[in-house]
Every structure is written in C-alpha cells, then in structure tokens.
Amino acid sequence: MGAVNPPQTMKTPLPGSPFTVPGSPEAEHDRELLQSILDNAPLAIWMTDTNGRMRFVNRRLCDILGIAEARFLAAGHYTDLLPSFVATRCKRADQDCLAKAAPHLSKEWLQFVDGREHLLEITRIRLFNPDGSLRGIAGMAADVTERMEHEKHLERVAHYDALTGVPNRQLLADRLAQALARTKREQGLMAVCHLDLDGFKPVNDRYGHGAGDKVLVEVTRRIKEAVREDDTVARLGGDQFVVLLVGLQATEECVGSLQRLLESIQQPIATNNAVLSITASIGVAIYPEDEQDADTLLRHAGQAMHLAKQAGRNRYHLFDAISDQRARSHHKLLQEIRLGLAVGEFELYYQPKVDMASRRLVGAEALIRWNHPQRGFLLPDDFLRTVEDTELEIELGDWMLRTAIGQLQRWHEEGFAIELSVNVSAYYLQSTGFVAKLQATATQLAAMDALRHLQIEVLETAALEDIGRIDALIAACREFGVGFALDDFGTGYSSITYLSKLDVDMLKIDQSFVRDMLQDKGDHAIVQGIIALARAFEMGIVAEGVESAAHYEALLQMGCEVGQGHAIGRPMPARDLSAWRMPAIF
Predict the structure, then answer these.
(1) How confident is the model at residue 489 (pLDDT cuts 50, 70, 90)?
(2) What is the band of 3 on the pLDDT scale with cuts at 50, 70, 90?
(3) Residues 6+ positions from 41 with CB-CB distance below 8 Å
(4) Cα(566)–Cα(561) distance, rounded to whole angstroms?
(5) How wide is the angle at C-alpha 402 spanned by C-alphas 398 and 406, nearest 5°?
(6) Which strand ranges, in their side-by-side order, compose the sheet holding 316-318?
(7) Which runs of E-coded beta strand occur in 112-217?
(8) Which of 10, 16, 79, 432 gets the highest tally of CB atoms within 10 A of its CB?
(9) Could you give all domains of the chain from N- to C-terminal order, each with its CATH number?
(10) How far is residue 41's CA from residue 59's CA, in Å, rounded to a whole number?
(11) Contact 91, 107 (CB under 8 A)
(12) pLDDT score of 6
C-alpha cells in the first residue's frame, strides 16, 4: 500500500466524509485506508442491512471462519453460512439489537478454521441513514478464549490443590458455607471430617517426596471413591484433608462412610521403591448437634482428630463438649507449664534412700514439684501427664537433669557424698541427642565426676517397648559412669530373658506391692520373688512405698537392701537433706 497523503483542507465538507469530496482520488484513498485498518484490526468487524444481508466484512472475520468475503457479500442472509444452532442465536441477537437503542452484548461459542471452538464477546450497534431511518447493524467480536482459559487457570490455582486437584482451604470455606446453608434449609445433618494420615512423614524421609506425592494422590482418589458425589473432599495441605458429608438424616449414617474411608486408605500403596501401608485418623464434628459456625466446626473436627490419634490411630472420633473442654484445659495447662519453667516456678525435692541394714543414708531420688502461683504446691501427677510425648516433656527433662547434676556436684563439693537418682521417661531418654546433652550439661557445670554418682530410673514398661534401643542408650551413658535402675518393677510383663538383656544396676519394687504385702499373700510373694530375681542377676534392690516400721522390718527380713518411703523420709528441699536423720521409730 502506498504512502498516505495528508488530507486536503475543505471549506465545506460534504456529507459522508469530513475531509474529502466523494468520488475524488482523496476519497478513494481514504476508503482504502479505512479498509486496511479494519482488515488488520484484532476484532472481527461486519455490517449488515436490516434484512441481515452482509454489506461489509473485514479480513479478520473471514480468516477465523474460513469463509471468503465474496461468499459473505453474496449470501441472502449472513447466517446462511453459519451452523444452524449458531445462526438461530445470531438472528435473535440481531432482532434484540434492532429493537433497542443501547448496544447489544452477547457471547457466542464458534468453531474457527483451526478446528477449535472459541468464545467471542460480541457487541452490536444500530446504524442510521442521514435521514434518521434505520440502516442496519455494525458488529464487532473479540476472541476472549485465551483470557477465559487464563481466568479459569487462575481460579483453579486459587481454589484447587495443585497436586491432588481437589478443593483447597479457600474453596473449602465456600463449600462449607454452602453445606451449612443447605443443612439448615433441609433441617438435616452434616458431618465435618478432619482426616490426617498416620506415619506419613517417614514416607517422605525414607523414599523421597516423589513417593510421598504419589501416596497423597492415591489417598485422594480413594477418599473420593469412598464418599458420595454430593460430598466434598478438600486438602488442607501436607497430609491433612477435610471431607464434608452432607444430606444426612442421622449421625449413624456417616459411620459407614468413615469405615469405608479407613478401610480404603489402609490398603497397601505401591510406589516405585516399595509397597507402603498408610492409615488415617479422623475427627468428626456433626452439625447441628455441634451448633457452631464453620470455623469452629473445623476446629472441633481437628480436636477430635487429635483424640483419635491419641487413642491409637487408624480410627475416627466424634467431637463432644466434654472433649472440647478437656482439650482447652490441656492447652491452657501446657501454656502455664511453659511459663512456669521460664520464670522458675519448678523445684526439685529429694526423698531419702537408706541402707536398711545399717540405716545409713545412701542416696536420694529427685522429684519435681511445681510452685504454682494460683494452685499452690503441685505434685507430678497434677501436670506431668499433660506434657507426655511433647517437646515440653523434653524441656522439663533437660531442666530436671541440669538441676539434679548441679545439686549433686554441690553436695559432693560440701563432702555430702550420696547417690542421686532421677526418673526419666522413655520418650525423653530416646530424644535426639540425649547422651550428648547429658555430657554437655555435666561439662558446663564442671560435674563430670558427679556423673559417677548419678542414677537414671526408667519405667519397666517403657524400657520393654524398645529394649534394644534402651540398652544401647544405657551402654552409651555408662561410658560417663551413669548408673541405671528399672523403676516400678513388677508392674510390667518382664520375662527373665528380657531382664537379662537390660544392663541395669538396680531393680525398684513398685510401691503398690510393698504397700499391701503385709495383708496380701500374693503381693508378699511378688516382693520376695523380685528380691530373689535381683540377687540372681547380681542387681541391687530398692523397695518403694515403705510406709511403716512394720514394712521396714518385713523388707529387712526378706533381704531387701535399700528402702524409700514416707515412713523413712518424705521428699524435701535440697537444703534439708544434708541435715536429715533417720526417724526415731526405727
């Protein structure tokens, strides 16, 4: 196309062009220029008369539909060239446009010459002759397919989990609101189920994240198969899912779905490297039995899920108000314990141990106490169960060992040489770096020599859960001179074979046997048997629960070496132990 000449200035523009005279070379040039602009526009543009005959069509429309301009202009009605279902809608849109003053807007799916269907946003406007009579319609169509697909992609990214394809946390909130509204309207029930996989972390650690992703995808598929089409399956993140069971008439109806979920998930899952077994713990909140808002229902389902895990995993647990109150109290107590540890509210008391033959003080057991600012003096049973199997249990254990080792060192520097025992949970004993922390603590306190007088007490039942690992830890601690005792002996199910595998120095007879042995022949026989067993394995023996002089004399006659109990001496602050003397009743 040639160079564009600037328009000539006219004193009186003629109708049809503000700059050129119709029929003049300039007018023809302007027409060609306008045609070129319209042909190369990104929009499909056309013009029809009031009868639907095409009067103008640009190249864009011809190219995308694969219909030549000449065919459009020759057709009696432009829609004769379009598929019948499209033609019907276009004729109706033209009629609506001619009937209204405002532009007519519509959307239409149309197959292009590339073989794909494209979405067009179409704008139609009425055209008028100079005398004001209706001339026809001008139409413009923009291809918005890519924009629509991009919007769909963004919506999917925003509302669906990228790995599993199920709704994410954000879309779950909307689905839960809709489910609540439906349940209220139908006056039925719905179940909010919080599902967490058991033992999923080791899969990633051992087999890699690829295997972990494969497990999550397969578990998602199984969950979707186990529930109904109307129910919602969403992934909160990690290995946690939420399932909304809707349209229930009774609580019992969801039990079948929960059982199917548990049974389906626990079936073996094959990965590239192994066949894995995964289970799930599910917490359930029922609406309107638990008449709360959406966020609270989710929180209650989560609390119930944790109770399912605590009960042994691979099961479901229904939320109730008592469980909620217990959970709130548990959380509050954890916070108070953490604060109390930070501000120095905890203290070690020391209970004397005596050689029963000589009645001489030979040692003490360190026992934790809590000087609570509101509740007063608290014993271990009031708070230790709260921290079981948590990081706070490890923090308390660190504090106890550090305090006990420091006190043991001070006593030895003062010439008060006794053995000190500290009760340690199996969870703390097997925590990461226990042996290294023990050595580091003694080094920092300049108390490595004192470790030779430290004895760690481990519950018999806990020691037998992983006897190999506990025995390895005992061996590592022995290198620093630390001794070990098996606490509450007789309450577990130790066999002589197990006992021979544990390299402990001492057995402690559980106080429940000692307390009743004067009246109960069975307990008396158990105490005698444990004493004989200790001698056979060349271990020391300590009897807990010496509550009277009669207990003391009976144990002495049986050959028990060391005694501990309230009749001998109650737990006391460190400052009182060095001045302690055996009670006069002995």
Answers:
(1) confident
(2) very low
(3) 58, 60
(4) 17
(5) 175
(6) 232-237, 240-248, 189-198, 279-287, 316-318
(7) 117-128, 134-143, 189-198
(8) 79
(9) 41-148 (3.30.450.20), 160-319 (3.30.70.270), 331-577 (3.20.20.450)
(10) 9
(11) no
(12) 34
